[in-house]
Design goal:
106 residues; alpha+beta; 3-stranded antiparallel beta sheet; 3 strands; 60% helix
Length: 106
Amino acid sequence: MKGERRRALVQVGRAADAHIARSGESNGDVMAASTRSNLAADYPSIHKWVFGGGWIEIGQEVCRGSFARALDEGGMVWEGKRHYKSLEDAFQDLDQGITRWLEEQG
């Protein structure tokens, strides 16, 4: 299980690195600030979700049938597909899934 989580964190790190590279910034401090604002802009529902008390899980787990999940204190509120072509695809699907769930809740 630890190995699976480590691989998921590496994948998230690589996605963040790719996002940083797309931002075009060269200074590490500026890049970090730029990435935070870009991630919030690119995935507004994920941003709202995790700063509003929910959390997300990304990665393969033996006992789960999905790669991306959104949860709150009540449990699972959204599950994505088992596989994605890229981590960015998973984040996009997760953001859209959270958006739909939030709209359904009113």
